[in-house]
C-alpha cells in the first residue's frame, strides 16, 4: 500500500478517536446552560473548560449570567416558625390530596410521626396537593409542596422539603423582597436567590439538606407566593450568575447608605470576584478617604437611588451610663468609658474594629456584626428618616462615624451618624427598587451591583 495512503488512514483514525473522546466528555458533564451573551448557543459545563474566552463563554474568574437547562432539586431543612429549631419530638403532617407515604397511597388526611416511626434511611411523602406541618403541637402556618422527607436523629425527628429549583426560588423571592416592588427588581432578586441556592448545595448535609429556611440562609416560604413574584421567577427561569463554571458567591442586603461594598465587610480578604464597590446612584461618585466617607454619610445625596428610604440615614446617641452598660455586657468590671474610636474599616468604610478605653482597661470589638451588636439600640432612641425606634437588637449597619463629647476625661455622650440597613455587601435590594423605578432592567441592575461581564 502506498505510504501516503497509510499515513492518511492513521490521521483519520486519530481524528475519529478525538471526536469520540470529545463527545464522551460532553455527555458526562453535570451542568448544562445557555449563554446570555450574543447567540443562544447551548453549551455544557465540560465545554466551559475548552471554549475560547473570545467566544460566548467567559474565562475562569469572570462572572456572567447564564441559563440552566438541567435544573436540580433543592432540599430545605425546616425549622419551627423560622426559629432555627429543627428537631421535634413529634411531627403531624397533613395533606390535601392523594399522597404516597412509604410507597403506599393515602387520600387526604394526616398522620403523626415520632422518631420510632422513621426508618434509618428516612421516610418520604409525595403529594399531588399541599402539606402542612404541626411541630410538637404547634401548627406551622406555612404550606409546602413537592416532597417531604422525615428523618430521625437522637430520638427526635425533623423534616426536609424537597422541591425544584424554580419552586424554591418562587418561595424565597416574596420573603426577601416585597411583591409590590417593580418587576425588574424582583427579577434581579430571583436571579440572586437561584444563584445562592446553587452555590450552597449540600450546605446542611448533616440534615440531608442543602439549605435551611432562616435568615442565616435565605428566608424560605416565610410568606405566601404572589402572582408578581411568580412572574419574576418565570421570566428569569433558570438564570443564574456564574463565576467561571461555578455559581457565584454573591450577597444582598436591604438598604445602602449610597455605596455598597465587597465581602471584606467581614474583616477578611475579599474572596468573591463577583463583588465590587458600587455607588448606588445616578452618575458616578467616589469616596477617596475616610474624610470623604464622613462628609458623605453626614450629608444628603439627591442622586442616590435610596435617598428616600427610611434607613438611608440614621443616628443614635449613647450617654456615659449607657456606654458603661454596653461595656459591662463584655466585661462586668467596667466602671467608666474614657474614649471610643473606630480603629479599622473595610475598603468600603464599614467599621470592622472598635477600641473602647475604659480607664485602665481597653475593650477591642472586632467584626462588623459584633460592633453592631455592641452598639445595641435596645431601649435607646434610634432615629431614621421617618421615625424613632427603641426596640432594635443590633445597629442598622456598620457604616457610621462618631461625634464624642467629653468632660473631665470621660465621655458624656457619643452620637453615631450612620446610613444603610444590613451588611452592605453585594446588591442593595432598595437600590434595585430605585433603579427599576427609574426604568432600568434586571440585567442592568445585576451588572451594576456585581462584576458581570
Structural class: alpha+beta
Gross geometry: globular
CA-CA gap between termini: 55 Å
Number of helices: 9
Could you please describe the fold and organization of this structure?
With 453 residues, the chain is α+β, with helices and mostly antiparallel strands. It contains 9 helices and 27 strands. It has helices at residues 3-27, 165-176, 183-199, 227-235, 290-297, 320-328, 368-374, 429-437, 442-449, and strands at residues 32-35, 42-44, 63-68, 73-77, 90-95, 99-101, 104-106, 109-114, 123-127, 131-135, 138-139, 147-153, 156-164, 239-243, 246-247, 252-253, 259-260, 278-279, 314-319, 339-345, 351-358, 361-366, 382-383, 388-389, 400-407, 410-418, 427-428. The chain has a 6-stranded antiparallel sheet. Helix 2 (165-176) crosses helix 4. It is globular, with a radius of gyration of 27 Å.
Descriptive key words:
453 residues, alpha+beta, 6-stranded antiparallel sheet, 5-stranded antiparallel sheet, 27 strands, 23% helix, 28% strand
In short:
This protein has 453 residues and is an alpha+beta fold. The protein has 9 helices and 27 strands.
How would you summarize the topology of this molecule?
Elements: H1 3-27, E1 32-35, E2 42-44, E3 63-68, E4 73-77, E5 90-95, E6 99-101, E7 104-106, E8 109-114, E9 123-127, E10 131-135, E11 138-139, E12 147-153, E13 156-164, H2 165-176, H3 183-199, H4 227-235, E14 239-243, E15 246-247, E16 252-253, E17 259-260, E18 278-279, H5 290-297, E19 314-319, H6 320-328, E20 339-345, E21 351-358, E22 361-366, H7 368-374, E23 382-383, E24 388-389, E25 400-407, E26 410-418, E27 427-428, H8 429-437, H9 442-449
Parallel strand pairs: 16-27
Antiparallel strand pairs: 1-2, 1-3, 3-14, 4-13, 5-8, 5-10, 6-7, 6-9, 9-12, 10-11, 12-13, 14-15, 17-18, 19-23, 19-26, 20-21, 21-22, 23-24, 25-26
Helix pairs in contact: 2-3, 2-4, 3-4, 3-8, 3-9
